[in-house]
Amino acid sequence: MKLCIFGAGGVGGYLGARLADAGHEVHLVARGAHLDALQSDGLRVESIRGDTVVDLPATDDPAEIGPCDGVLLCVKSNDTFAAAADMGPLLREGTAVVSFQNGVDNEAWLAETIDESHVAGGVAYIFSTIGEPGVVEHTGGPARFVYGELDGRHTERIEMLDDALSATEGVDAVLADNIRVELWRKFAFICAQAGMTATTRRPVGDLRENEASWEMYRRLIEEVCAVARAEGVDLPDDTVSEWLDFAEELDPGMYSSLHYDLTHDKPMELDALNGSVVRHADEVGVEAPMNEAVTAILSPWAAGDD
């Protein structure tokens, strides 16, 4: 396949390197010092599942790449609209644009700019980040990528992507029958993990040891599940207990990308996470006081991004 990784950071860089090692034609879209390093020294992935170095074409201009079979969108949710506006040269009839981003709104946001027929959904379960320009560090998580058409159909293009990812070493690939369920499942966890580690500025181990904090963590998950079900998303009954059990096993020193962005003066995805829960809750008439609290506490910091 000819694939564009739009946003070659922790998630995108990992995917791009693995797909290139599997023999696919991979192009990277990046910017700044990271782009400079990719162009001069290639992309290095330092991973618990094996290191690799690949020399891939990298640019900040999608017109240099041209039409692709698939675009894997891995930018921060804050950059979704800007990415969509630049995506035209990458698209032809049948091109799939798969969002591997945080949140449940990115697919709708994409469809506001590009034809919705291109848009598919995805979920990434991986702990990876840019360690330094040109270097992606994969430190944990299953490297599990779930994807699917928004209407649940197994189209030729999504099966092509599934074949590519399933045969790629270092990637656990899952073609979902209902990607909306998968999007909301992850959303429930990330809103709790991100919201609590950012507002308290403490790692998950400290949250587990504090009864009030751990109760709020649980309620954040419950609220997201309630909103999802009110929107008609058929989440599994054990979603709350599943994520609490998962969080119990996390390294006690683990934070979140939202906490990292807060403490490093970087743009925060608050609007796509807890802020999104509040909006969706209001639309379906569900109470979400814990997510409202997180949004209120972090909003002054997020507003400082502008």
What's the domain count?
2
From the helix content, strand content and strand pairing, which structural class follows?
alpha/beta
Which residues sit in consecutive blocks of at least 5 with pLDDT less than 50?
A: none
Rg over alpha carbons? 19 Å
The chain-level mean pLDDT equals 96
Structure description:
With 306 residues, the protein is of the alpha/beta class. It is built from twelve helices and ten strands. Strands 1, 2, 3, 4, 5, 6, 7, 8, 9 and 10 form a ten-stranded mixed sheet that branches. β9 (135-149), α5 (156-166) and β10 form a beta-alpha-beta unit. The longest helix is centred in the middle third of the chain and has 22 residues, at 179-200. The protein is globular and about 50 Å long. The chain starts with a strand and ends with a helix.
Give a short overview.
The protein is an alpha/beta fold. It contains twelve helices and ten strands. The chain has two domains: 2-177, 3-Layer(aba) Sandwich (Rossmann fold), CATH 3.40.50; 181-303, N-(1-d-carboxylethyl)-l-norvaline Dehydrogenase, domain 2 (Orthogonal Bundle), CATH 1.10.1040.
